[in-house]
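Box 3.1. Reading complex inputs
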Amino acid sequence: MDRDDLPRCPCRPRPVLSTLHVNSAEEARLRLLDLGVDAYLVDAVLRGVLAQRLEIMRCGICSGTGCETCAECGVTERRLRMDLWVANR
Ligand SMILES: [Zn+2]
């Protein structure tokens, strides 16, 4: 994607980046429609969606109940999960 593919404002061309609260990247288009954005506008300008979430990884030794290895919290780490949806044009 280059600058010419991005939505434009009549005053000053610039890309529009935003955040939405949805469960997956594929749900972003439906959420925009739910918010009242016209379907033709969404389909004309939406180029892709990057969804991300943090997954809590339970301790492999105590299975989340707490032990010395996980400092009694049951969690050993958090991992970033990303989901990329790209419009098919
Ligand atoms: Zn543990």
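In summary: Strands lie at 48-58, 75-86.
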